[in-house]
User: What shape does this take?
Amino acid sequence: VQLQASGGGLVQTGGSLRLSCAASGTATSATRMGWYRQTAGKQRELVADVTSGGITNYSDSVKGRATIVRDNAKNTVNLEMDNLKAEDTGVYYCNGRRVVTPRYSYWGQGTQVTVSS
Assistant: This one.
């Protein structure tokens, strides 16, 4: 297993969640690690990602409400989101990719996040 995701579940509107992803094997050398989400009928979209140097990137939909943190020593990447909205509902996937040789892109198993009042 290269990426193991955890967290998610049912959260109330306005609440918070924390998603964790642990990398192993080749995935520990990922150039970028991040979280994507997918909803029914839509393509998987970036939520946030972070480089090995700590440079972060957030989608406009979560900017100001999300924080992504990568711990290179522990090979983990965590995503915390506040003020959750119904549109945050979806299946969240951890991704680790390397853009220099050897290139790869790994996906963790999806974890369901449901935001409901």
